[in-house]
Amino acid sequence: MRATVMRGSLAVAGVIALAGGCRTQAVDTGGRQPAPRADGSASPSPSDDAKEPGAAPSRTPSVRPAPPPKVLMARGASGGKVRELQARLRQIAWLFEGPNGKYGPATTKAVEGFQGKRGLPRTGNTDTVTWARLVRMTHTPTRDELYASGGQPAAKPDRRCMTGRVVCISKTSRTLTWMIDGKALMTTDVRFGSQFTPTREGVFSVYWKSRHHVSTIYHSPMPYAMFFSGGQAVHYSADFAARGYSGASHGCVNVRDEGKIASLFAQVRKGDKVVVYW
User: Fold this and answer.
1) What CA–CA distance (Å, rounded) separates 26 from 196?
2) CA-based nearest residue to 166, from 251, 223, 234
3) Residue 63: what pLDDT?
4) Least reliable range by pLDDT among 55-64, 137-146, 215-224, 232-241
5) Strands of 253-255's sheet in order across
6) Cα-based distances in Å from 212 to 99, 224, 228, 265
7) What are 209's strand-pairing partners?
8) What span, in angstroms and rounded, lies between the C-alpha atoms of 157 and 87?
9) Residue 104: what pLDDT?
10) What is the spatial distance between Cα 105 and Cα 189, in angstroms, rounded to a whole number?
11) Contact 150, 83 (CB under 8 A)
């Protein structure tokens, strides 16, 4: 009888609990239920505390963007480093004109093309990233590559050029310097013969001058010719003026600056010394 009463009481209690909306409570790490709040809700967990009003919000540290690469050269620059840049661009066919040491429109366009081909920003400026990529793809330019169109500083005069009236010609710097008693009066670019028709080296003298000379062998004009060794002469060359160092003479010393060769022709006398050296 007593057991029957107890079972009935438990059944009534279960119905009351369901009617009151009773729910399962979370259990803390010690196996105890968290203490209920005054309003009947559970106490907050530690993770809930961080979301309470007034709590410091969590922040992901911001990452600063990398600074842009440093610009080494840009349009308007000039000098030896620009000349090297141009020579390296010529090695990989991004620039076709000879280096002149001036960062102008052609160089800017060549750099833009090089950058675009390699997925770099097409700024036209040579920055550290562009320069590093170019250096890895090319070799250190030779002197001839740096001065593919001429313009080299004159080499140190040979000692044989230091006395008297001398047409001093350096194969190393590809320059002719007109000198009197060791003083340089004028310098100009020159071109020599090919390996099959080399320009002779040594000390000579001007033995004949011919203002409107035409070659009897090749039938080509040789204006302002000053002969110093057999058929070899210093003279103006229209081909040199047009094509630069992509061509060669048949042994003569070609000058491409007509104004300078005209001035030299007027000053040089028969018997003046000619020195051709490396």
Assistant:
1) 100
2) 234
3) 78
4) 55-64
5) 202-205, 273-277, 165-170, 175-180, 183-191, 253-255, 232-236, 221-229, 208-214
6) 33, 6, 17, 12
7) 226
8) 27
9) 98
10) 25
11) no
Contact 107, 130 (CB under 8 A): no
- C-alpha 240/C-alpha 174 separation (Å) is 13
Q: How far is CA 3 from the centre of its chain?
A: 100
Cα distance from N-terminal residue to C-terminal residue, the chain: 133
Per-residue pLDDT of 197-206, as tens digits, reads 999 999 999 9
CB 124 within 8 A of CB 243: no
Strand partners, 213: 222
> Among 200, 201, 239, 204, which residue's Cα sits nearest to residue 218?
239
| Least confidently predicted of 19-23, 125-129, 200-204, 239-243 | 19-23
Among residues 92, 134, 94, the alpha carbon closest in space to that of 110 is found at: 94
